[in-house]
Specification:
heterodimer; A: about 70 residues; mainly alpha; about 65% helix; B: mainly alpha; two-stranded antiparallel sheet; 15 helices
């Protein structure tokens, strides 16, 4: 998929959800390979899940407003 | 936020890689260079390396204990690697107090002010090295002549590095052919029998370390190969254009710290770009800047400055050079 977990995690952590959407956070299928392999044991997938849920919620609100 | 999300769902399994294993892998890769430099420089190399490592660990411990008041992580090996690399970048007769100041700048200023491992924009060991080079130019550029344990520490006989000999000579109008007779032959330089910093002299030992790092998959080939490749191509162009004034690519590769910088300093995870294409651009930038500083700059050696300058471009490269996401390009849509 060529996503960048380090970037998606940081964007979710800082609350920059619009940028996270542009970086295609919703393409993440939560396989967990990033968290499995991270040598520094960062909670990558945890933050990506949180960011993904927020981005999807924002997208739904956009649709319902139309 | 961190505590809130620590009660975590999948993945419950975790791979065997840890920061500690990677860092000790790098430290093992540095051992051949350490042994060859002890062989050439004797006690000086032992004293400077052990002081540098010990003071890096000590400063990291003190800062984490009394300023951060967080769990102590000096056992993760990153301070060990910083200490080794800092020692590898200085002459073997450097006074102990300068080594301690350099270690303080590396750990306290370049690493801990930004939040510790993972957040520093510049390579800590190189910041310490450049600080020492600018603050103590005399001590930092008097290189002991390699004589094994006869070199001594405080009373070592000093001489210039091959790069400095050539740079000074060309500035004074001497011919390159004449200068090349004053410096060690390429085979001597390959084995490390020349004046220079502790870790940079022996190309063969650094290459053994490079093979080990690749075998352990600690680094990928992109950055070292692009640094060395761009350096060789650029110096080859200059050499072919004017062989009277410019030294050969082989000389530029073996003299000075290109191999140490390309293999161990430029590949630092924290301060190098993420995607393979950005890594290659970063490596080419380091190689070209190194040659520019060496040929036209004020210093005979430019690897450390080149790496620090390119470190500053890493956030920019991470923002604009990204892997193509799946489905980004719509064909027949």
């Amino acid at each position: 998929m060529n996503l960048e977990p380090y970037l998606l995690m940081t964007l979710s952590e800082k609350g920059l959800f619009e940028r996270a959407e542009k970086e295609r956070i919703t393409d993440c299928m939560e396989c967990g390979s990033c968290s499995y392999t991270c040598p520094a044991n960062r909670p990558l997938l945890d933050y990506i899940r949180m960011g993904k849920a927020t981005v999807i919620k924002m997208a739904r609100e956009r649709v319902s407003k139309q | 936020m961190g505590n809130l999300l620590n009660v975590s769902p999948s993945p419950h399994a975790h791979g065997k890689e840890t920061t500690q294993k990677l860092m000790f892998g790098v430290a093992v890769a540095l051992l051949p260079a350490l042994f060859t430099s002890i062989f050439y420089f004797g006690w000086g190399a032992v004293i400077v390396t052990s002081v540098s490592v010990a003071s890096c660990l000590l400063f990291e411990y003190l800062i984490q204990k009394f300023l951060f008041k967080k769990p102590i992580t000096i056992t993760d090996g990153s301070a060990l690697v910083t200490g080794l690399l800092l020692a590898f970048n200085v002459p073997s007769n450097l006074p102990v107090f300068i080594v301690v100041i350099g270690a303080f700048i590396s750990i306290a200023v370049a690493k801990m002010t930004f939040g510790g491992l993972g957040n520093n924009p510049f390579n800590p060991a190189l910041v310490g090295r450049v600080f020492m080079l600018i603050s103590f130019p005399v001590q930092m550029t008097s290189w002991p002549v390699p004589k094994g344990f006869a070199t001594g520490y405080a009373d070592a006989v000093t001489g210039a590095t091959p790069l400095a000999v050539v740079k000074e000579g060309l500035k004074n109008g001497e011919s390159l052919q004449q200068l090349l007779t004053q410096i060690p032959t390429p085979s001597q330089m390959f084995l490390g029998n020349m004046g220079g910093s502790i870790g940079e002299v022996a190309a063969v030992a650094l290459l053994i370390g490079f093979i080990w790092l690749l075998y352990k998959k600690i680094i990928t080939w992109h950055i070292p190969v692009s640094v060395i490749g761009s350096l060789l191509i650029f110096t080859a162009i200059l050499w072919l254009a004017n062989p009277e004034k410019n030294a050969s690519p082989l000389f530029h590769l073996l003299a000075g710290g290109v191999l140490l910088g390309a293999i161990f300093m430029a590949t630092d995870y924290v301060t190098s770009p993420m995607s393979p294409l950005a890594m290659i651009i970063y490596g080419c930038g380091i190689g070209i800047l190194t040659v520019i500083i060496r040929v036209w700059g004020a210093y005979p050696e430019g690897v450390s400055f080149a790496i620090l300058i390119m470190n500053a471009f890493v956030p920019l490269m991470n923002t604009y050079i990204k892997p193509k996401r799946f489905g980004e390009e719509v064909k027949n849509g």
